[in-house]
Specification:
elongated
Length: 416
């Protein structure tokens, strides 16, 4: 079943909460709603669930407007797991999960074999069968949340709505619950979930909608939505955005805190590639503003630079450096207090990074392991010649990252 939201607006007591919301979620897809507190995530979920009535626009299920469904019809199609749910009586786990079958039963009708199968399947899926006869009040927070998910699954819905389902749960319970949801998506369920944890959302959601002040600020795949710029604009936080090397998922970390220290020591530009800049960037990122380039998104140095919040000049993978990227690289070199040439392997595709250094004052350049250039030269000697020319002009040879840091401090002390 497909969810379509057309120009939805909602207000509490005349105060706009949501404006101009357009969304579509198809079967077998998960969409995460993310955004700061008060951005409208829960309100949007409640409009999709039919608990709240839009001020403008509409929600459609398979092109039928939500308000045209009866409550029983909606309950058969929509399963909802709320952030906090209270149970008035100390029901057993099985008794609670059986409540999920109510939309499928007639008035005064007892459960049939099919209903019992649905209940048992929901309990097995959520791994709560072992405490089926225990009162809900005796369960931990993670166990209770799995019970509420089981109630929703027992409805055999086509759409599942989750409002902060992992809130207040230990990480093991968070992952267990999200894995269950992922399996149901693979089975064809459409899922819309409001999540506070951006990394969890990035790993488990097919697409994300970033809400800000009641509007959708960004919509798309996690890597398209969770950019440093979008997060700065909506959350007001400086972050580093990287990609988990084990899972391939986007992940977010707070940017290195020593921003004032970096501004005090100045700005450095790193010429690197192929992993040659990893150690250098990690050593200098807490004390300096860094830029780097030209790199491609498939380069390991690119991932480290993104993680550390380094400004980049980028070019397409497996292609020569473009004129635009080359010019940006030169501008960043000129704006820097110093340029560091790492122990980069050079071929025809990245030789322009080395050529760009020739236009700078020679003493501005620090060359790591210049004696090893011949072993890294795949340009027929052109790169070796350029390094030798830089050294002849007065570029500073450096043997290690530790020596580089010492030379940079000495240079700063000499300027004071």
């Amino acid at each position: 079943m497909r969810i379509s939201i057309k120009d939805l607006g909602f207000a509490y007591d005349g105060r706009p909460i949501l404006e101009g919301i357009y969304l579509e979620v198809k079967e077998g897809e998960s969409l995460a709603l993310v955004g700061p507190n008060g951005s409208g995530k829960t309100t949007l979920l409640r409009n999709i669930a039919g608990v709240l009535k839009p001020r403008s626009g509409a929600v459609y299920l398979d092109f039928k407007e939500l308000r045209k469904f009866s409550p029983r019809e909606l309950a058969r199609r929509l399963g909802v797991v709320e952030q906090e749910r209270r149970v008035g009586f100390d029901f057993t786990v099985k008794e609670l999960v059986e409540l999920g079958r109510i939309p499928h039963l007639g008035r005064f009708e007892r459960q049939r074999e099919r209903d019992q199968r649905a209940v048992m399947k929901a309990m097995q899926t959520t791994k709560i069968s072992e405490f089926a006869d225990r009162p809900i009040g005796q369960l931990s927070g993670g166990e209770r949340q799995r019970v509420f998910l089981a109630i929703a699954l027992a409805q055999e819905p086509e759409i599942l709505l989750l409002d902060e389902p992992t809130a207040h749960l230990d990480i093991n319970y968070q992952l267990e619950l999200m894995e269950i949801v992922r399996e149901r998506v693979r089975d064809g369920l459409a899922v819309v979930m409001a999540l506070h944890d951006l990394n969890l959302a990035a790993y488990y959601a097919d697409r994300m909608a970033l809400l800000h002040q009641g509007r959708i600020a960004a919509l798309g795949r996690p890597e398209e939505v969770l950019t440093a710029r979008n997060i700065r604009r909506t959350f007001g936080a400086e972050v580093a955005v990287g990609r988990n090397p084990l899972t391939g998922a986007i992940y977010i970390e707070l940017a290195p805190p020593a921003r004032q220290a970096r501004q005090r020591r100045g700005r450095l530009h790193i010429v690197c590639g192929g992993g040659s800049g990893v150690e250098v960037m990690h050593e200098l990122a807490s004390e300096y503003n860094l830029s780097a380039g030209v790199l491609s998104p498939l380069d390991s140095d690119y991932e480290v630079a993104r993680h550390l919040g380094v400004e980049l000049a980028l070019s397409a993978p497996f292609a020569p450096i473009s004129a635009e990227a080359h010019e940006k690289n030169i501008r960043m070199m000129e704006a820097a207090d110093g340029v560091i040439l790492c122990a980069v392997p050079f071929g025809p595709g990245n030789l322009r990074n080395l050529e760009a250094l020739l236009g700078l004052p020679a003493k501005k350049a620090h060359l790591l392991d210049p004696e090893g250039i011949a072993a890294r030269d795949y340009t027929g000697g052109r790169a070796t010649h350029l390094v030798q020319e830089l050294l002849a002009r007065g570029a500073v040879p450096i043997e290690s990252t530790a020596e580089l840091k010492e030379r940079l401090v000495e240079r700063e002390d000499a300027r004071i």
